[in-house]
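Sequence in, structure out. First:
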Amino acid sequence: MNDILVLDKLSVCDDKRVLLKDVSLSLKENETIAFIGESGSGKTITLKSILAILPEDVKRASGSVYLCGEDIYSLKNSKKRSFLGQHIGFVAQNTVNYLHPLLRISTQMTDGYITYNGKKSKKEAYEKAYQLLLSVGITDPERVLSSYPSQLSGGMKQRVNIATALMMDPCLLLSDEPTTALDKVVQKQVIDLYLSLLSKRNISLVLVSHDLFFVSKIADKIAVFYSGQIVELGQKNEILNTPMHPYTKALLALSPSMDMDKGKPLQEIKGYISEEDRLRPGCPFFSRCPHATKKCESVVDQVFVSPTHSVKCTLI
C-alpha cells in the first residue's frame, strides 16, 4: 500500500518555544493512527501543521509534510489551498463554535464543494449533502439541512461536521477529539459511526483523542506525544499491551477500570510539561520520570523494539 501521509522530521516553533521537534510518522491507505498524550503535548499543532493552518506567530522550522506524495509546504499558496481542500477532511474539536451560527447547514455543507467543483450545480451539491447526512445516521436530512446550528443537539452537530468533512471524498480525514463534550451514549454512537465509515470508505484517519477506549476500538497504530515529540510509536496492540516508554506506561495507568481498587486514589503523573523539558537535548520526560538517570538529561536513544515499534528512551 502507498503512504497517504508522511511527516519527515517536522519541527515547528514560535518566537519563544519549540512546539514540535523532529516528528516523523507515516500513514498508509485505509489506515488509522491515533495521537495520544497530555494537553499541550503537540497533538493538535501536528494536525494544524498537516493542514498548513498554523497560527500567525507559529512557523514550520524544518522538516516536510507529504500528502499523496506532494510536499505541501513546497506548493504555492493558491495551489496548496485547493490541494488540501480536495484531499483532506477535517473534523474540529469544538462542534459548537466550528459551525457558523448564522448560516444554514445546507450552505455550510455545500459552499466548499461547489467552489472546488465548478461544474457541479447547487442541486447536485445539495443531493450529495443529503446522502452524506443519511450515511452518518441522520434520518431527517431535509430538516437538518434547513436548520441553523442552534437548532441541533451536540451529537447532531458532530454528525454534520463529519458529513461536511466527507463532501470532497478526501483520502485523509483529520479528527480532533471527536467525543469531547458528548455524553456517554452519544460517544458510543460516534465510535460506531467512525467504525462504519472506515469500513465503507477508502479513507485514512488521523485521530486525536484522550479517550483510550475510543482509540482501542478504532486505531491501527498509536503515536504517543510528549512535549512536542513522539516518544513512542507502534501498532495499537504494541502500545496498549506492551508499552515501553515510562511516559506511555504512566499515561495508560491513568485510565480507570472496573477492576481497580475502589479504596485507592487514581493514578497521576506528578509534575507538568516545562519549557526546559522542551529544550532539553536528552529525554523530555526526564524531570518527571521516576526511573531517570543522569544520562537521560543529555542523551536519548531511538530504540526499535520491533520493525513497527519505536521508543525514544535510553533506559530500554
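Second:
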Amino acid sequence: MKTYLLNISERVRQFNKVLDVKTVLCDKSWRILRDDGIKESYIFQQDGQVIVAHNGKASIGKYVLLTENKILITMGDERYLINPTFSQTKDILAFQLDGTAEYSFMINEKSELNITFPTFQALLDYWKQKEIEDLKRQERELKQEIEDKRQLELKKEREKYIASLELNKLRPPYLKRFRIVGMLNLFLFFLGCILWGSSNTKSEATYFGGIVLICFSIFIVICLGCSYYTLVDQCNIEYMESLMNDLDENDEKYKWLKDEILYIRDRL
C-alpha cells in the first residue's frame, strides 16, 4: 500500500467517519492514488477477503473491522492497522496508518472523480486550489461584512443628520412673514365683522364692504393653508443648499443633502 507522509490533517478531518464502514467499502474497486504510474487497486469483499492488484497482478489478503472504525489488513507477513475516513460523496477514501502522519488515498473507480484525480498530486493540487478559493471567499465575505456594517453606520448617521436639520419646519425669516400675513388677514376679518355688524346704522356699501372683507380673509386663509407645505419645502431646499455651499462635494453630508433635495423637488 503506497502511503505519503503528509501534513494535511485539516483536510482529512473534513472527511466523514462512516458508522457502517463495511457497507461503503465492500464490493467496489478502490484505486490507490499514486504518482509513479503503477496501478494499485483494492477490492474488499463481504467475506473478509481483500484482493490487491498491482498492474493486473493480483494477490489475496484478509481484513478485519475492529472497534472505533479501525481496519486490520493482513497481506502475507505484513499487517496494517489503518483508520478509514470518507469524503462527503464517499467516493474518496483516506487511509491513515494508525499512530502516524502517513496517508494513503483511494478512489472509487466507478466514480467520475476517478478521471478527475488520475494521480495523488492532482488531488493535492485540487485541495490547494480549494484552499485558495476558500481564502478568497472568506476575504470577500469579510469585506462584504465590513461594507454592510459601514453602510448601516452611514445610514444611521444620515438619519440623525437629516433629523437635525429640523425638516418640515419653517425657518425664522419665512415664519416671520407667515405670521405677518396671518395677523393682517386676522385684522381684515375682524374689520369685516365690525362693518357687517354695524350695517343697520350705515349704508349698504358698508354692509357689502364687510362681507367682502370677511370673504377675502377666508380666501387668504385657504391660500395660506394650501401653500404652507410648499413653502416649507421651498425654505428647506434653500436652507440645505446654503449648507451644501460650505461642504466639499465628496463629503457624505453633501451627498445626503443632495439626495434629500432631489426627493423634496420630486414631491413638489
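Remark: The mean pLDDT is 82.
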